[in-house]
Specification:
3-stranded mixed β-sheet, disordered N terminus, alpha+beta, Muramoyl-pentapeptide Carboxypeptidase, domain 2, 270 residues, 4-stranded mixed β-sheet
Length: 270
């Protein structure tokens, strides 16, 4: 009976739950179809970081993610990169959002802003802090006024952690990282281009030990991803529509299959 529920039907239930479940952290399901048992809270302020927009209640994660974020902020402090601003992680028990994210459901995803501050922000500023764009979207080029080595080093620090499976950034940011000279470029393989990530980067951890019901993502392709793959993301000039192109546009789109919520997740919101 439990398996008959779909994520679309139970999406808002996750947002109504305000506290994590008891027990040790356990990520269940996939990043975009799962939940979080035994979630931990990231303190709203710590050494070298602050949580922004905490009123959204999205500062819960697997214990591995909480440890990762605390460690990353300490490493950033040692390099004098500035104060780190942490955005959405997950809701208290993970699960699907009604808007804003398709992933972030298992406590293993976190958004870290590329806006670094010299000193901690006032509490009032944390509520409505504005992003700092690193990309001129229309021109498809880096915003040199805002981008610096600080942003590049912060991404490198994050990607070099063995717990990290992927980091998503705007393709232009990936291109900028590829242009830089690095003694070790292995970590670039984890940095994946994805639209929308022009003012923050999205960290995704691998399934932790003990989370036996966690569904891992396939590893990134071999190489640093700086060649033809990255070039394919660059927008192409529009060409005149042909009869064949028009035919493709008029064809009905296939419906996406309904994702069934893992039964272990449904038990968390009963």
């Amino acid at each position: 009976m439990l398996m008959s529920y779909s994520l679309s039907a139970s999406a808002t239930l996750w947002e109504k739950v305000k506290v994590p479940s008891n027990g040790v952290s356990n990520s269940i399901g996939s990043y975009s179809n799962g939940c979080l048992a035994g979630g931990e809270t990231l303190p709203l302020e710590g050494e070298g970081y602050q949580v922004i927009r905490s009123q959204r209640g999205r500062y819960y994660g697997h214990s591995e993610m909480i440890q990762f974020l605390k460690g990353l902020s300490l490493d950033a402090q040692k390099l004098r990169l500035g104060n780190m601003l942490v955005g959405d992680i997950s809701m208290p028990r993970g699960g699907r959002f009604s808007s804003g994210h398709a992933s972030h459901q298992t406590g293993l995803d976190a958004d870290i802003w590329l806006k670094m501050t010299d000193a901690p922000l006032e509490k009032e500023s944390l509520v409505e802090v504005q992003p700092l764009p690193m990309v001129h979207i229309k021109d498809y080029k880096i915003n040199n006024k805002n981008w610096s080595n600080k942003q590049a080093l912060l991404i490198q620090l994050a990607a070099s952690d063995e717990r990290v499976a992927r980091i998503f950034v705007h393709p232009v940011i990936k291109e900028q990282l590829c242009k830089s000279e690095w003694q070790n470029r292995d970590w670039l393989r984890k940095v994946r281009p994805w639209w929308g990530h022009y003012y923050h980067f999205h960290v995704r951890l691998s399934c932790p030990d003990g989370s036996t019901n966690c569904k891992a993502q396939n590893p990134p392709p071999p190489g640093d991803g700086c060649g033809a793959e990255l070039a394919s993301w660059k927008p192409q000039k529009k060409v005149k529509q042909t009869a064949q192109n028009k035919k493709k546009e008029t064809q009905p789109k296939k419906k996406k299959p309904v994702k069934i919520t893992p039964p272990q997740c449904l038990a968390l919101i009963q």
